[in-house]
Write a structure and sequence with these properties.
Radius of gyration: 28 Å
CATH class of the largest domain: Alpha Beta
Strand content: 25-35%
Bound molecules: 2-acetamido-2-deoxy-beta-D-glucopyranose
Distance between the termini: 49 Å
Structural class: alpha+beta
Low-confidence stretches: 1-21, 30-34, 690-697
Shape: globular
Number of helices: 12
Largest sheet: 8 strands, antiparallel
Number of strands: 40
CATH architecture of the largest domain: Alpha-Beta Barrel
Number of domains: 2
CATH superfamily of the largest domain: Glycosidases
Length: 697
Amino acid sequence: MVFSRTATVLVFIYYLASCACSCRDETLYFKEPCSGQETVDIDDSSGVVRAFEGIGAISGGGATSKLLVNYPEKERNEILDYLFKPGFGASLQIFKVEIGGDMQSTDGTEASHMHYSWEENYHRGYEWWLLKEAKKRNPNIKLYCLTWGFPGWIGKGTNNPYIDPELTADYIVRWIRGAKTIHNLTMDYVGIWNERPYNIKYIKTLRQTLDHNGFQNTLIVAPDDFGWNLAHDIKNDEHLEKIVHAIGAHYPGTQSADYARNTRKPLWASEDYSTFNDVVGGGCWARTLNQNYVNGLMTATISWNLIGSYYPNLPFPRNGLMTAMEPWSGHYVVETPIWVTAHTTQFVPLGWRYLRHHKGVAKLSKGGSHVALTNDARDQLTIVIETMSHDHSICVRPKLPPYEVSPQTITLTLSGSFKKISKLNVWYSKLIFNGSESQMFMKRDPLVFTNGQAQLCLGVDEIYTLTTLNTGEKGVHPKPRDPSPFPLNVHDNFTTYEEYQEPFNLAPQIGSYEVRKINGESVLRQTVLQRPVYWCKSETLGKTMSIIGNHSWTQMGISAVVEIPRVNGTDGVFVAARVDRGGCYSNEAQGIFFFTFPITGKLMVTNDLARTKVLYQGTVPMTSGKHEMNLTVTESKAQGYYDQRQVFSLDLPETPKNGWVALGTDSYGLADFHSYTVKVPQEASEDILSSKIKLHY
Ligand SMILES: *[C@@H]1O[C@H](CO)[C@@H](O)[C@H](O)[C@H]1NC(C)=O
Ligand SMILES: *[C@@H]1O[C@H](CO)[C@@H](O)[C@H](O)[C@H]1NC(C)=O
Ligand SMILES: *[C@@H]1O[C@H](CO)[C@@H](O)[C@H](O)[C@H]1NC(C)=O
Ligand SMILES: *[C@@H]1O[C@H](CO)[C@@H](O)[C@H](O)[C@H]1NC(C)=O
Ligand SMILES: *[C@@H]1O[C@H](CO)[C@@H](O)[C@H](O)[C@H]1NC(C)=O
Ligand SMILES: *[C@@H]1O[C@H](CO)[C@@H](O)[C@H](O)[C@H]1NC(C)=O
């Protein structure tokens, strides 16, 4: 016993003395210096460089927070704390939202503040609510707004929003003014047109319109597209140079172009991440946050998206910092990217400056990277180190070239203003990929510096924050409720909403749907009258659609009481079952679609939204006013009822076998839905469950 203990001590001493500083699980820090290790200099004596402008996230682009707003209030507040409350969770510093344009922008549509040139409204959708919740928690959060598309009248019959730059700038500035006057929200940044061409004349017109309306402090970030080409324009145009605050590129893969850096403009990854938020997503985000600066000098990084709060069978499921897609159960998940974000945001306030490369900012020789930042007085210091391995930090795009990471010990040397620091607080995460829970954002013993030196043992897939700040908290709310599937019976007559709200759970994919009070009655109105200046091809079909429910459903019934207004009405309406896709692919949606055209008295059942695969044609009485449409899909049959009279019964086509229920219109134009009901037989949902269980055998 005694012998072996002594031996261990001797081995340990030998181990230090011989400089074989390989990392051991139980010993994170080595007190004695070892030669032959990488030295990381933290030194501000040659000055500090670019200012940190924040880490943020996007709600929208599109409808990514759709399901968040109808969470029970307690859970909703908890989720908002994890995202926005300073020193609690992600503590986001920038909040970017979509300026709704009545068009599909990835996972749904968001309403415009001006569906038509003759009206204006600042109570639509949920982004206003979310902006206020963010600002309530963090008054210093920077707000950033951007359009993905525009209502049709902006394009004057084209898909070009720059056809009349004054008109478009006026439309955007009205939204910014509405934010200010109606909601007391000040926009810090505004963008141009998401991932679509920019137009220099428009950028200049926007600046001028902002200035004329008193929004001199709302700065332009441009172009919010892939690549850095705007830098060339900036180089040749002094006026443009002056009015663009930052060049914002999407998914830069941590790299920026020389010609962009040469402009001396702030460079932003104004949309990044877009990766499934499992542990690899956490790794992607950790590598991106550090290396966007190390490799690309980017001083702000913004995640698409904020939170996975949309139906999981829509495109890019769970591409948010956390997940909350079950308002009916209240279940949510605080995913690893929340704590990865906290490693920087909780310890680097806006405006701190990066130290120079190789004086605090560099790649590590055995893989990974570090950044160091300090405040104006240079009496505070934060260092963030990440050692994400290649396969554990792959993002959705661009391709990640191969590289190696291995455990390493580094010697940190503090000089300049930091020479006298005797210890740094330590926050630590390790991402774990074997199914065990990752260790996220844990406070460790401080790292003690002797004569400005300390050693740190780094494993693989780890994050360290070393900081003089004594703040920092791993916020915790009670364990969330258990998950449960979408309810099997849903009825809504829209009486519980304020006018202009978007009803819960119904997720518009084309068109814009809002509650209206018409003759004292609440209806859900499809409002879009013409094809918008669109962002993706779903709009090219000319139909509108809103989905609801569970994509695994095979049997289901949907009924709706519909009415087509006499003025500016659509030509037909539908209810549908087994709808297999949404997002930018909505125009290709397959399913069972029951259309009626009350004005011509036609009825049509099709296998697709485009109405190219006709399953049945018939007639209905040609009467205006309210009508009840009901589509019931059982194991093998589709049955339709019109005003409670059966109008068809037919064998189901082979595909699709499952999908959402939906309602919609055959063309742009008004349609009022007075109520809808969804019923799913218990057996059908049991089928899903038992087939799931079978998969395990
Ligand atoms: C508007 O917001 C500012 C902070 O952004 C706050 O100081 C002010 O009290 C708010 N005004 C109103 C009327 O709520
Ligand atoms: C997974 O890895 C962690 C640490 O790397 C280890 O503690 C744990 O035992 C492992 N779990 C399994 C199931 O292999
Ligand atoms: C859909 O139903 C299945 C089976 O009940 C369930 O596993 C899944 O979580 C449900 N999804 C949603 C979005 O409700
Ligand atoms: C709306 O539905 C609720 C129950 O879901 C019912 O109590 C109410 O009477 C209905 N209102 C109208 C106007 O149909
Ligand atoms: C549709 O009509 C059938 C027959 O009247 C009825 O049994 C069913 O409950 C209705 N479905 C819905 C969703 O209202
Ligand atoms: C119908 O559209 C015309 C323009 O096409 C517009 O002037 C009118 O206000 C619209 N009416 C309604 C009820 O929306």
